[in-house]
Amino acid sequence: MKELEQLRKIKSVVFSTSWKNEPFSRIIDLMLVEDESLFFVTGRGKAFYRQLKNNPVVSITGMDENYTMIRLKGEAKLVSEKQMDTYRQKIFEENPSLKSIYSPSQRDILDVFYIDSGHGDLFELNNHPPTRKQFSFGLELSAPWGYEIGKACIRCGRCVPLCCTEAISSGDPIFTIDSSLCLECGKCVEVCPVDAISLAENTTDGR
After folding, report:
1. Residue 147 to residue 111: CA distance in whole angstroms
2. Is 154 in the same domain as 133?
């Protein structure tokens, strides 16, 4: 999948987890993409490992040299004991720099995790205006995110000139918002006289 390969190319990305209702983030290297799954490793003694075992839902964010930001949310799963050595070997072959850190006798302290389903978005910050594309893997593509205009719209047009990306267009019977252009700044919500604009259901998960 293109987005997973882009994350792998970035390689060093931000992984966010939670522990006792507190957020934690760190840079983790994505080691392998195979069968539309992302693979990474961590030592069994690390706090990151304990956080993954306690709550496997993670958020990943990365940005490449062209200011393309990719973020996704998914569940990290531990590779089965039967396959662990196979994937450790693959990861060391794909990432030779690891060999300078872990000798053959030390490598078994690293456990391999994978993410085989999730959803996210690709944010092209170098475009004018910036554009976003939603994606998913191992799951059905969810409904559009961002703000949406409901049936209460009276077509007054107050929101249109205030949108910095020109995401709002006049429609019949109501105006519409292009989610690929919406920056979710909320200006349109503040000026709507009839409270017709609200966040789409998929946006309530902390996007």
Report:
1. 40
2. no
